[in-house]
Amino acid sequence: MKTTGYVTEIIDELHRTASLISGDEAEKLVNAIVESRKIFVAGAGRSGLMGKAFAMRIMHLGLDAYVVGETITPSLEKEDILILGSGSGETKSLVSMAQKAKSLGAMVAAITIFPESTIGRMSDIAVKLPGAPKDKSDDSYQTIQPMGSLFEQTLLLFYDAVILRFMEKKGLDSKTMYGRHANLE
Ligand SMILES: O=C([C@H](O)CO)[C@H](O)[C@H](O)COP(=O)(O)O
Predict the structure, then answer these.
(1) Could you report the predicted ipTM of this complex, rounded to two decimals?
(2) Where does the record locate the signal sequence feature (predicted)?
């Protein structure tokens, strides 16, 4: 298949996964972000990269957003939310973060293929995204893509959709948000 054929196939896969995301679960996450004081985002590897893109846009919304592990990230407190993106829901560093966040009384949200995973079960809000785990141990969801690519792409689209929903709720537009964009690039 030509590279452009693969692009079309990936988009078809994303159409299928997008249509399976629960609107109620997504709305719970948006409302939790609205109600939280600070928003912390975490994920490992590629899932973490999608989280960084999400945290940047949350900052553009005018909220206090942080990526876990960065040098200027402050302490998590009980009025805050920790959002974890993890296909498997079993990544060890994220399990520890979820445990710590729970012990501090903060809200934990998981975006995962497996709400029944360790991270999913520990979370106050779990949004299920369809996909195949990176080790392909669960072959119930078919994708032509390697490892967790389909989950990671769906995660980025989902995060961008959360931003749009937040903008809609708060009457924000791109122009206002651009006013907060980095100007030392
Ligand atoms: O980087 C990743 C890998 O390339 C899978 O496609 C994963 O995002 C990373 O290993 C984290 O895994 P999950 O927590 O299961 O998303």
Answers:
(1) 0.98
(2) none
